[in-house]
Amino acid sequence: MTNRRDFFKTTSLVVAGSMVGANLVSAAIPAGKKKKKVGLQLYSLRDDMTKDAVGTLKKAAAMGYYSLETASYDNGKIYGMLPDEFTKQVHGLGMKLSSCHLGGPNYTKGTHAACMEWWKTAIADHAKTGMKFMIKPGMKWPETLDDLKLQMDYFNAIGELTAASGMQFGWHNHNHEFTKIGDEVIYDFMLKNTNPKNVIFEMDVYWVMKGGCSPIEYMKKYPDRIKLLHIKDEKEIGESGLLDFKAIFEQGYAIGIKDYFVEVERYNFEPLVSVQKSYDYLAAASYVK
Ligand code: MG
After folding, report:
1. How many Å lie between the centroid of ligand 1 and the Cα of residue 143?
2. CB of 226 within 8 A of CB of 255?
3. Are 36 and 237 in contact (CB under 8 A)?
4. Which domains does the chain show, CATH number per domain?
5. Hey, is 100 helix, strand or coil?
6. For residues 116 and 121, what is the distance between their CA atoms, to the nearest angstrom?
7. pLDDT-based confidence at 35, cuts 50/70/90?
8. Considering only 30-39, 44-53, 146-155, 223-232, which range has the smallest mean pLDDT?
């Protein structure tokens, strides 16, 4: 399975001021383009972000993206920048910082204290950015329901800590959550064993579909728990025809989702082109606000 469980590795970002500027497109919203609140998971532009974070942010803003979810936090830095500096760059381009993906250390009973310390620091760093959500997209994969319950207790503890800083902690799924341990579907078990006050769910609609389930049915079943969506397709949004994005957006708005993020992980084009095409697809869709 291709996913992001290992993308939190250190990236060495060289953001040289002199490299930024000359050959970049303007950060202004193109004339005639209606500004919709389309979010972008920056993992979609991971290689470009590694090469030139500021230049790539400018390009994302110029495409029309409104809000961002980050996917690079290491040693107190976000894409190689201190939280304040990163926030200034994003705000300066007229975009909003909404959410982040964070891995954290592998959790076992023995590492509880160290893990909670890691989250304390991560929460403090991200509180400086004004983000509202801190999302975990991977965990030590459980073999038994006891293993899974241990991880959910950990999620509840992180959730409580995150809520105390005015943000919300949540889980991002892949397809594996729609398999069972015993009689329990992992995703449902996770929903039932986390505190609704402190743990939200960012539902990746593509991975729900790959898990053999319906993102729409899940939103209907847990309308108060699913607060964010990953709008993802095989490659560019809308290209496969496998997902009914109209029905997904309508159901998402019906349950009051707080934000959604385009995610492109595989590409028919250069990533910047695929990410632009994905924005254009949603910008042209009458059902997207
Ligand atoms: Mg995703």
Report:
1. 23
2. yes
3. no
4. 4-24+33-283 (3.20.20.150)
5. strand
6. 9
7. confident
8. 30-39
Please name the amino acid found at residue 114: A
Q: Are 39 and 66 a contacting pair, CB within 8 Å?
A: yes
Ion ligand 1: residues, CB within 5 A, are 204, 230, 263
Calculated CA dihedral for residues 264, 267, 268, 274, nearest 10 degrees: 40
**Rounded Cα–Cα distance for residues 262 and 277 (Å):** 11
With a CB cutoff of 8 Å and minimum separation 6, the contacts of 80 are 11, 12, 13, 14, 15, 53, 72
Contact 136, 101 (CB under 8 A): yes
Give the CA-trace dihedral at 251, 252, 256, 261, to 10 degrees.
-170
- Whether 199 shows a pLDDT value over 70: the answer reads yes
CA of 204 to the centre of ligand 1 (A): 5
Give the distance between the most distant pair of CA atoms in the chain: 58
**CA of residue 15 to ligand 1 center, whole Å:** 26
Indicate if the pLDDT at residue 238 is higher than 70: yes
Q: Residue 34: what pLDDT?
A: 54
What's the gap in Å between 28 CA and the centre of ligand 1? 27
Mean pLDDT of the chain: 91
Best CA proximity match to 69, nearest among 99, 103, 96: 99
Q: What is the DSSP letter of 106?
A: P
Give 118 Cα–ligand 1 centroid separation in angstroms. 23
- pLDDT tens figures, 11-23: 333 333 333 333 3
Query: Smallest Cα–Cα separation from 15: which of 70, 58, 60, 53?
Result: 53
- Contact criterion met (CB below 8 Å) for 97 and 131: yes
138 CA from centroid of ligand 1 (Å): 11
